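Lecture 7, part B: from sequences to assemblies.

Below are the input chains for today's worked example.
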Amino acid sequence: MNRLETTINGVKFKNPVIAASGCFGFGREYNELYDVSILGGISSKGLTLEPRQGNKGMRVWETPSGMLNSVGLQNPGVPKFIADELPWMEKLGNVIIANLGGSLIEDYLNGIMLLNETNVDFIELNISCPNVKTGGMALGIKNDIAFEAVKLAKNVSKKPLMVKLSPNAENIVEMAKACEEAGADSLSLVNTFKGMAVDVKNRKPVFNNVYAGLSGAAIKPLALRMVHEVSKNVAIPVIGLGGIYSVEDIIEFIMVGASAVQIGTVNFSHPTIAPSLIKGLEDYCINENINNIMEIKGII
Amino acid sequence: MDFFKTKVLSNQKISSDIFVINVPNHYDKILPGQFFMLKSWDDHLPLFRPISVYNVENDLISFMYRIVGSGTANLANLKKGNPIEILGPLGNGFPVGQENGTIALVGGGVGIPPLFETAKQLKKMGNIVHVFLGYKDELFGFEEFENIADAIFIACENGSEGYKGYITDIFDPKIYNAVFTCGPEVMMYKVRDKCSQLNIPSWLSMEKHMACGVGACLVCNCDTIHGTKRACKDGPVFLGSDIL
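Predicted structure of the full complex, as C-alpha cells:
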C-alpha cells in the first residue's frame, strides 16, 4: 500500500513533499546531509534563459518567524541547467520540476522550448518573483497579463505547466481562474509576500531593491487561506506552500485542498527535516487508518 | 559536514560582550577558517548563526563570538548541558599547506578568533607566523597567540593598548610570502590593496548574512571577478585579487 502517493497532471509522486524552488538549489547540497531522492519531487532553483548574477547588496534579513530574501533569480541559465544539473537530478528518480522565470515573454517561451526536449516532468512557471524589477512581478499581479503569458506558454509547452502564483496578486482567486482558463495544468501557491525592512542605523532600506520576499512560518496562515480559496474555485490540482514547518502544517494544506506541498524556508532552520516530515505523514495515515493521504484532500 | 544535536560543554564570558562556547568534537577534520552554523532557539528566529572555528582540540570545538543581535544573545545565555544544534564544518578555510614561509595574519575584532586555529596549523607545518590584531577598545583573545605566534602586533583605536589607531596603519606586507585576513571589510580591503601593490597573495575571509549555510539559498553573495560567489560554499576565504 502506498499511503503517500499522489498524482498531479498524470505524474506520479511517491509522496506529496516537494522541495520548493529557491530553497534547495538543485538538491546537491542537501544530498550531503540525507538522500534527497526520498522527496516526492524537487523544484529547481528559479531558472532564466540566460545566466543571472542576481541582486547586489544584502539578500537576506531575519524577521519574527520568517525571513526576507532578495536573491533576484541568480542562476546558471536554462542551457547550463540542462547540461550540468539535470543529469544529476535525473539519477535521483523523483519528480523533477524546472522552475522558470524571466523578464521577457520571449525568454520564457525559449526556455520552455529548451526544457521540452529534456526529461523534466513539469515546468513551474514563476510569474511571481518579487525580486526582479521588471517582468515577474507585474505578471503575477495583473490577471490579464498573466492570462496572456500562461496562454502563450501553454501553446509551446510539451510538459505539464504548473503556474506559481504570487500572494501579491490583486485578487488571488481571479488570478487562479485566469491561469486555469489560459491552460495552466496545475497551480502552486504561494510565492513570497512582498515585504520590507529598514536599516535604522544607516537610515535606509536593508535591500537595494527596497522590497523583498517574505517566507517562513509567519506567512503560513495567509498561505493556507489562499490555498483554501483557490482550491474551491479551480478544477486543476493545487500545490500548497508557504511556511510549512511540521507534519500538521502539511495535513492542514492537504485538508484545504492541496494535492501536494512544497517545503522551503524550513530547510534552512531544520536542514534534515524532510525525511521526518515524510515519515510523520506515513505515521499519521497509519494512526488515522487512512489508505492514501489524498483521502483527506479538500475535506475543509 | 553533518547536522548534529549536541550539548554545550561550557560557555564563558571573556570580556564585556565576547564569549567562548565549547561543544563536543566528533569530526575527523576541521580546517582553519571553516565555520559552523549554530542554533539554540526555536523557530521564532528561523536562522542559524554562522560562527568561525576558534580552536579545535581532540574532544572539543571552541567558538569565540560577540553579542551583536538576538541570535548571539541567545547563545550567550547557554549553560553547560544546554542543547545546541550545529551544522558543519562548512566552507573552504584558509589555504594552510598551500601558502608557506613567513605568513602574516591580520585580524580585526571578532575576525580575530579564526586566526587562532589558523596560526596553530600554520606553525604545525613549520611556517613563521606574525599576527596583527586590531581592536576598537577592549582587548580579548590575544594572550593565546603568545605561545604560538613568532611576533604579535596590537593596535587599539582608543590607544588603551599597543599602537593607537588602526592595525592597517602599522601593517606592512613586504616581508611576507602570504597574508591571511579576517575582520571588517574596510580593513580587509586595505590589507588586500597593500598586498596587491607588492604582488603578495592575500586571502580574505568574507563575513556575510547567511540562511542555509550549505550553498543552496544564494543569499551570502560575494562579487568576484568570476561572478557572484557563495561565501558559505565557495568561500568564506577568497583570494584578495578575486574580490571586486
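Note for the exam: Chain A has one domain: 6-54+72-192+216-296. Keep this in mind when comparing with the next example.
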